[in-house]
Amino acid sequence: MHAKNWLRGATVSVAVVVANMFGVQPVLANTDMPGKGVVVQPGQDNVDGENFQTIIVMKALEALGYDVKPVQNAKYPALHIAISNGDVTFMADHWNPLHQAFFDKAGGEAKLSRRGKYLPGCAQGYLIDKKTADKYNITNMGQLADPKIAKLFDANDDGKADLAGCVPGWGCERVIEHQMDAFNLRKTVTHNQGEYSAIIADTITRYKEGKSILYYTWSPYWVSGVLVPGRDVTWLEVPHSAQPSGADTTLPNGKNYGFKINTQTIVANKGFISKNPAAAKLFDIMQISVNDVSAQNLKMKEKGEGGWKNAMRHADAWIKAHQSTFDGWLAAARAAAK
After folding, report:
1. What is the DSSP letter of 232?
2. Where residue 229 sits, what CATH number does that domain have?
3. What is the DSSP letter of 47?
4. Are 58 and 50 in contact (CB under 8 A)?
5. How far apart are alpha carbons 123 and 229 in whole angstroms?
6. What pLDDT was estimated at residue 225?
7. How far is the C-alpha of 45 from the C-alpha of 23, rounded, in Å?
């Protein structure tokens, strides 16, 4: 056995020497490209405001050698199931805890990996225009149970407030619908659901016309760059915590806006993560700021730079401006693969 081991070692050494003599690099384990030969299928809901985050993850994986395919679009519930089944490898825009029900239904921790804090500090809730808030001293969603207050936000003359709400299938619509009952708003408020970009565009037009507005939104997103909280609009608190999960949404400062502060995390197929320590480490440590994503989203809106191609360019610019951070992610991922 000793002779065989010595011979095997000598053979490898001779191969390396010969390769060097003729200027040929020997084929050894490529620690710089730990993902070489591994196919990755990204997934994302078809939301322009999330392209940027997804692309940065894709570019990091490509830099590690992974064969990253074009993104597949689907609604959040279907995406979680596709990741569980292995048809999609990862999504970069899982809202924790908003998407907890989707996570659980797709198999939870047994089939999915939910790692890191990719985008912390994501807020959401209800807002009204500041002019109306100040004039009528409106600070809380519960006040809209009063028909006289609700009628201020009536956009179609039916006597009820019109709430620009959430797209079905996003998760936020479940919370809003739950709170409509919990805060006794069914008789005075209409929750308008549909394509959010169209609903919020109409809301902004109404604001520019000097009319009162009521809407749901989240950050990071471009809306808060157009309707600036504290200047144009104001956040409304809620009468009490009311989540389908029973979670307490009271903030440390005592304020309660009806939603917990979320963190966007990277959810991936658990089998993929177990076989790819480089990707696992990458997903653990990647983090970008809400402000950076909001700035990119606002650029999409104000400069007409929406769509995937523009988001690719924005992601390249972000990486260049944060090159040492990006390179640090890659170094840590490569070290984890050794």
Report:
1. T
2. 3.40.190.100
3. -
4. no
5. 12
6. 87
7. 49
Which residues constitute the domain of residue 231? 124-236
CA-to-CA distance for 228 and 221, rounded, in angstroms?
11
Closest to 218 (Cα-Cα) out of 16, 23, 49:
49
Q: Which amino acid is it at 12?
A: V
**Cα–Cα distance measured from residue 234 to residue 196, given in angstroms and rounded to the nearest whole number:** 20
Give the predicted TM-score (pTM) of the model.
0.83
Half-sphere exposure of 271 (CA within 13 A, CB side): 10
Q: Letter for the amino acid at 306? A: G
Whether the Cβ atoms of residue 278 and residue 334 lie closer than 8 Å to each other = yes
Q: What gap in Å lies between CA 308 and CA 294, rounded to an integer?
A: 16
Q: CA-to-CA distance for 124 and 206, rounded, in angstroms?
A: 21
Burial of 92 (0-12, 13-18, 19+ CB in 10 A): buried
In a domain, 246, yes or no: no
Q: What is the DSSP letter of 160?
A: S
Split into its structural domains, the chain has a count of: 2
DSSP string, 99-125: THHHHHHTTGGGTEEEEEEEEEEE-EE
Q: What is the dihedral of CA 293, 296, 302, 307, to 10 degrees?
A: -110
DSSP 140: B
Spatial CB neighbours of 151, under 8 Å, sequence gap ≥ 6: 159, 160, 161
Residues of the chain with pLDDT under 50: 1-29
pLDDT attached to residue 68: 98
CATH number at residue 97: 3.40.190.10
In three-state secondary structure terms, 217 is strand
| Integer CA distances (angstroms), 308 to 54, 115, 118, 317, in order | 10, 25, 20, 14
Whether 268 and 99 have beta carbons less than 8 Å apart is answered as no
Question: Which pLDDT does position 30 carry in this prediction?
Answer: 63
Residue 330: inside a domain: yes
Model confidence over 177-223: pLDDT tens digits? 999 999 999 999 999 999 998 999 999 999 999 999 999 999 999 99
For residue 112 the two structure tokens come to: 């999915």
